Automatic annotation (TrEMBL):
Start and end residues of each HTH lysR-type domain: 2-59
Gene3D superfamilies: Periplasmic binding protein-like II (3.40.190.10), Winged helix-like DNA-binding domain superfamily/Winged helix DNA-binding domain (1.10.10.10)
GO cellular component, one term: protein-DNA complex
Keyword check for Cell membrane: no
GO terms assigned for molecular function: DNA binding; DNA-binding transcription factor activity
Superkingdom of origin: Bacteria
Protein name: LysR family transcriptional regulator
Organism taxonomic ancestry: Bacteria, Bacillati, Actinomycetota, Actinomycetes, Micromonosporales
Pfam family, one: LysR_substrate
UniProt entry keywords in alphabetical sequence: DNA-binding, Transcription, Transcription regulation
InterPro entries given in the database record: LysR_HTH_N, LysR_subst-bd, WH-like_DNA-bd_sf, WH_DNA-bd_sf
Keyword Mitochondrion on entry: no
């Protein structure tokens, strides 16, 4: 009988690419992960990994088993959802991840609605950049999350997760006067922290316009970004959700590029009552 916990490790190896990354994700040692995968190989009766020096890759049998592991894990999520649906009313924890502009704009009304409709539901909200959310959903740290991507930085499909569209936003150039993107070639720029989706989006948008942005400041909070623009510290790209309370001296010029906000959860969890209730409060449906 194949062990579900070891199947999860194999699935995560396919996702992360290295045993060290899987170990870090599960707070194990790399040797412990290697030992568990070796046991899984013995259970499967076929080689699952190819080792070349310090690197490992999945064999064809390993890739096949990962596909089945995704189905097994999704089935377990559906089983948990069915059991939760049989309880008397919604109760227990619901761990929600969200990015800062959603925390400030989209999430508060949904939290109020959920609290009124399901007072026994224990809501817990955590702020994360969308780039790290898929891992946190896969390992069970989060139950549901608001994530975003850009047409210039699309989310890679993840068989372990499902997403539901919530909102499309316009992206604006924020400057002291109306400016298109090529007109900002020689301006100093205010970018989000390297490694975030917002940083990558700005760099790619500028590259598509024919230049590399000259970065003066890094700031992740869009209120701060707009304040810096108003203070003459540079130009920036900001999404529509952040374009409220724009300070004097800042002009927003719309671009064609868009940001898409989505509701994300584990595959198989769509019918979990708490996930469905959260989706309803956000104005989405998980049964599409």
């Amino acid at each position: 009988m194949l062990d579900v916990r070891r199947l999860r490790l194999l699935r995560d190896l396919a996702q992360h690419g290295t045993i060290a990354a899987v170990a870090a994700a599960h707070t194990y040692t790399p040797s412990a992960v290697s030992q568990q995968l070796a046991v899984l190989e013995r259970e499967a009766g076929v080689p699952l990994l190819e080792r070349t020096g310090r690197r490992v890759a999945l064999t064809p049998a390993g890739r096949t088993l990962v596909q089945h592991a995704e189905e097994v894990l999704a089935a377990l999520e559906r089983a948990a959802a069915a059991l939760a649906a049989g309880r008397d009313g919604l109760c227990g924890p619901l761990r929600i991840g969200a990015f800062p502009t959603a925390m400030r704009t989209l999430l508060p009304p949904a939290l109020v609605a959920l609290g009124e409709a399901h007072p026994r539901l224990e809501l817990s909200v955590h702020e994360f950049d969308p780039a790290v959310v898929p891992h946190l959903l896969r390992d069970g740290t989060l139950d549901v999350a608001l994530v975003h991507d850009y047409d210039l930085v699309p989310i890679e499909p993840d068989p372990a997760l499902r997403t539901v569209a919530l909102l499309d936003e316009t992206i604006y150039v924020a400057a002291a006067e109306a400016r298109d993107l090529p007109g900002c070639r020689d301006e100093p720029w205010i970018l989000a922290s390297p490694g975030t989706l917002c940083h990558t989006m700005t760099v790619r948008a500028c590259e598509a316009a024919g230049f590399i942005p000259r970065v003066r400041h890094h700031a992740d909070d869009f209120v701060t970004v707009l304040t810096f623009v108003a203070a003459g510290q540079g130009v920036a790209l900001v999404p529509e959700l952040a374009a409220t309370g724009v300070p004097a001296g800042v002009v927003l010029t719309p671009l064609e590029t868009r940001r898409r906000t989505r509701l994300a959860f584990r595959a198989g969890a769509a019918q979990h009552p708490a996930v469905a209730a959260f989706a309803e409060a956000m104005g989405a449906r998980t049964d599409h």
